[in-house]
Design goal:
mainly alpha
């Protein structure tokens, strides 16, 4: 059986923005990047600093 390569429908979350089922995931992503990117960057920098990896290490985020 062949599976279609399809992105699942996005489930509206509400709360942070006016959200609707017909809003594409790409638009939601652009909105959230605009609102949360600076906060995420600060959080990520703090998390990496707390972990204390070697200077030349690569850091991978596995989940939100």
């Amino acid at each position: 059986m062949k599976r279609a390569n399809r992105i699942p429908d996005r489930i509206p979350e509400g709360g942070a923005i006016e959200d609707a089922p017909e809003m594409p995931a790409e638009e939601y992503g652009r909105i959230m990047i605009g609102r949360l990117a600076a906060e995420y960057d600060r959080f990520a920098a703090d998390a990496v600093a707390a972990a204390g990896p070697p200077q030349d290490a690569a850091v991978l985020e596995i989940g939100p």
